[in-house]
């Protein structure tokens, strides 16, 4: 038997090694979410909807904000979080959203009924059926802490890194390592809706927030500005085009600096959820309505 002594890391070395992996960041994020009264799971497994493989989301959390058990109507919030320990900052390139974009429902949220139908009579006297998103009909795009009030619309996420004494920017692997896993997690955890009945027998609204939390700084650049500059920000929403099996269209996720994660949780997630819960609580049956009177 060899008498060779294997090196033993010190406590500081163990912690530094864990910091580099991002495992400690996951636990810190989970702790902050738990303190906001969410049920939290780290390393939550899900089945890849494209490939059927088992995958993991760094942090999964859920909290119910409204429940009418007699009518089987609820409003819940789901957080799907990928944590990235980074030695350099992330930069979001974006622009101001258009008025039409401000009214759009983010893809990750699930309403019991996605749109409502109403009749309208044209100048020729013919009756036509029109549709409007339930999100817009309920006025969720106008709530003070909702995404419709965002003044920034991120379009590209890049990572800064130092090379040969100079800062460089690239987006290598960001789509595959951040965006795509969150898209798949959203679809894997999307709740079931009652599509078989004219009036859904149950109505469960799930506000889902796909989130990237970075340990580093976060900057925003308005790419449409005449003289663009990098502005330090707490968090920003970014939208990407998605075209995969079962999912086509716009997908948005929030990129958050860990140093601002508590304020993001409160100002973006909790306050918005409370506002939505108040809208639903005022008239619960609205979220399972399929037909409405013509708008005035």
Main beta sheet strand tally, sense and closure: 6 strands, mixed
Q: Regions with pLDDT < 50 over 5+ consecutive residues? A: none
The proportion of strand residues reads 35-45%
Helix content: 10-25%
Gyration radius over CA: 22 Å
Q: Termini distance? A: 88 Å
According to DSSP, the number of beta strands is: 13
Put the structure in a nutshell:
The chain is an alpha+beta fold and 296 residues long. Helices cover 23% and strands 38% of the residues.
Description:
This protein has 296 residues and is of the alpha+beta class. Helices cover 23% and strands 38% of the residues. The protein contains six helices and 13 strands. It has a six-stranded mixed β-sheet, sandwiched between helices. A five-stranded mixed β-sheet has the order 8-7-4-10-11, with no helix packed on it. A hairpin with a 2-residue loop joins strand 7 and strand 8. The longest helix is centred in the last third of the chain and has 22 residues. The chain is globular, with a radius of gyration of 22 Å.
């Amino acid at each position: 038997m060899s008498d060779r002594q294997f090196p033993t890391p010190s406590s500081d070395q163990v912690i530094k090694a864990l910091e580099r992996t991002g495992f400690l960041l996951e636990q810190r994020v989970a702790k902050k979410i738990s303190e906001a009264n969410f049920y939290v799971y780290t390393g939550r497994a899900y089945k890849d909807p494209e490939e059927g493989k088992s995958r993991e989301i760094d942090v999964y959390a859920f909290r119910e904000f409204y429940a009418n058990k007699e009518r089987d109507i609820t409003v819940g919030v789901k957080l799907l979080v990928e944590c990235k320990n980074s030695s350099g900052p992330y930069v979001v390139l974006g622009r101001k959203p258009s008025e039409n974009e401000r009214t759009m429902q983010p893809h990750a949220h699930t309403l019991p009924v996605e749109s409502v139908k109403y009749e309208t009579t044209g100048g020729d006297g013919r009756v036509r059926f029109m549709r409007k998103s339930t999100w817009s009909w309920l006025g969720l795009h106008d709530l003070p802490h909702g995404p419709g009030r965002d003044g920034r619309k991120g379009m590209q996420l890049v990572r800064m890194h130092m090379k040969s004494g100079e800062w460089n920017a690239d987006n290598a692997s960001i789509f595959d390592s951040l965006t795509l896993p969150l898209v798949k997690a959203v679809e894997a955890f999307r709740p079931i809706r009652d599509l078989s009945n004219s009036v859904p027998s149950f109505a469960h609204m799930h506000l889902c927030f796909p989130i990237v939390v970075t340990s580093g700084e976060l900057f925003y650049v308005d790419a449409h500005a005449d003289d663009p500059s990098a502005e330090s920000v707490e968090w920003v929403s970014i939208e990407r085009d998605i075209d995969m099996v079962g999912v086509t269209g716009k997908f948005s996720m929030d990129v958050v600096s860990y140093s601002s994660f508590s304020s993001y949780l409160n100002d973006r997630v909790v306050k918005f959820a409370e506002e939505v819960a108040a809208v639903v609580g005022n008239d619960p049956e609205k979220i399972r309505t399929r037909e409405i009177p013509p708008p005035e």
